[in-house]
Predict the 3D structure of the following.
Amino acid sequence: MNRLVAVCLLGLGLASCGPKPLVSELTELKEGWALQDSLEVEFEVAETTQEFDFELLIRNTDDYPYKNLFVYIDYTFPDRTVSDTVSVLLADHYGAWLGSGIGAVHTSQIKFKRNASFPVVGNYSARITHGMRDTLLPGISEFGFEIIPSEK
């Protein structure tokens, strides 16, 4: 029995191995995603040669009334500000939800930038908001942002 537990723990440890994210934040939303609900993260870049992938995580229910979602990301670099708009497709043209999930909850993980590097060493920040016309988006229960080292 002890050997089985040890093998399970080793397997779990190996499964969790991998590059450590530079940023990994997830926000839970109680009543949907309101326009004033933003995710703000701060991070430090120590070198400019490392490449990263940028990802969004969107968790929605069947109550979300649209098939897409626009997300605004405002980055503050040490020397300038850069804005980005990401269009996320959550359902196909027939209305079937994309992503994974069981029942009424659907999770979409969107890699929207690959192999990107930061131009200068220093402190950075990112502010993520939705870019839809409605001030409250029902059915969005969580959203997240992650910057992870690119796999070679």
Observations:
- The radius of gyration is 18 Å.
- Residues 21-149 form a domain with the Hypothetical Protein Tm1070; Chain: A fold (CATH 2.60.290).
- DSSP finds one helix and ten strands in the chain.
